[in-house]
Amino acid sequence: MISLAYDWRDPALPIGALDSGLGGLSVLREVRMALPREDLLFACDCGKAPWGDRSQGWIVERVRKIAAFLVSKRVKAITVACNTATAAAIEVLRSELPFPIIGIEPAVKPAARLTRNGTIGILATTGTISSPRLQGLIDRYGKGCNVLRMACPGLMNRVEAGDFHSPETREVLHQFIDPLIREGADTLVLGCTHYPFLASEIRQIAGSAVTVIDPSRAVAHFLVERLEEEGLIRGIRGEEPVERFWCTGETVQKTTVLRHLWNDRAEMESLDEAWPSLSAQA
Ligand code: DGL
Question: Is the pTM of this model over 0.85?
């Protein structure tokens, strides 16, 4: 059990978010737009990423540890800004923590609504693609559609490296997108939070006839709804909201990419130093 020694029903407390890496910032930027007054704490695991090929048991332990770190910072809600972690660990987290836990899942339902020819492509990590949760979403919302699943090992690393537009990145994207387009997909779902940072390249490669769906804005709006239900939206305040970022592993290169993706004042702090129990896990 993650122990919680404070009253989380306080609108002045921060919102936490976690991911394996910097991809979760694609969700966090939507959270920032939707909730301009909230303090935001982001913790990610660049030192052990990618998570996409890890076992479910490993991911559950990792997510519990990072969530425990956010709890030590007294958060009032956590956004699991990672499809892989949502698929593997969200139920465990919800069973251990009393406050709102918001996850992200591949947008099968919107895709089934938007497709014109009934063929949908899902781009995600190996873990998400093979998860029972994704199968459940397809069974529930993808009826009558031809749903093509594409695991994309290596794609998140392009974002982690800050390499958004190079020929190598385009080549990796072609490798995953071309087969889906050849099979007739007219709608592509970005099923990993890293991929929205490659959205312009993805749109170019897929072509203008293909609809590309990023669910992160919908996730931010769902978070707003949950905070409203709980009376946890922060009111008017005088000072600038706090934004802090931690990652495992090295922080210098990550600060460079973070500044590119967030703003030039952002600083990556060491999660290994802040929360040593993470270094204990192999
Ligand atoms: N950003 C993550 C997701 O949404 C995971 C990427 C990875 O670690 O493989 O699935």
Answer: yes
